[in-house]
Give the backbone structure.
Amino acid sequence: MKISVYIASNKPYAFPADPVYLPIQVGRQLSTDSFTEVTDGTGDNISEKNKTYCELTALYWMWKNDRDSDYLGLCHYRRYFAGRRFGKKRDRILTGQSIESIFEKNPAAVIVPKKRNYLWDTLYSHYAHTHGAEHLDIARQILAARCPEYVGAFDRTMKRHTAYMFNMFIMSRESVVAYSKWLFDVLEEMESRIDTSEMSAFDARLFGRVSELLFNVWLEKNRMSCVAVGYVNLSKTRWAGKIKAYLSSKFFGKKLEQSY
């Protein structure tokens, strides 16, 4: 069983030594420097879209160019799946042996991070407050026109208060192929309908954000067998700023302007 979990990164970092993890530099076509052996700028790629697609340029590269792995995964240079709840952050990162054990028990599993709970918001209202409902409305219009069988799953997902976030997963290569074909078809149509040229760099990353929710739609529609594990963020979250920004968006209509 060959498992490859790609770590999307736009800068050099202290990556895990476990051989199951493979750093991939994202946005390589937009950079003059190279710091990983694997980059999203080789083979069949959309590296130049990294500013709007975020880590999805790594997903596209995996889909098109890694044909040897039985299971493919995506995480981030600061955020990983966790195998333990306690201990030093780096020691908690899910090991390749633990990942293999999950798939030995359930070959069709999709490993995802534990759901994030938005408490006072639905997924739709939270996105509407923080970024703008029009992105999701356009996504729904595209689904209705191109794959109407997904509209019910979309509507159910948008009414929920929890979701698997961060564009993190590990699943069979066959599942990655099926998901990617569907996702990038939707996103390419969204690109043709949304002009990002006048947006700030933060706002222009909308396709990466919308895909987090579309991933949940895809899981719902295809009744995928999800195995949720913990996750660990190696960087510090600026909670005071994050909470203030959320309250400002929810009660005063001020959209997010940065990540926390």
User: Anything to note?
Assistant: The chain has a mean pLDDT of 93. The two ends are 37 Å apart (CA to CA). The longest strand covers residues 225-233.
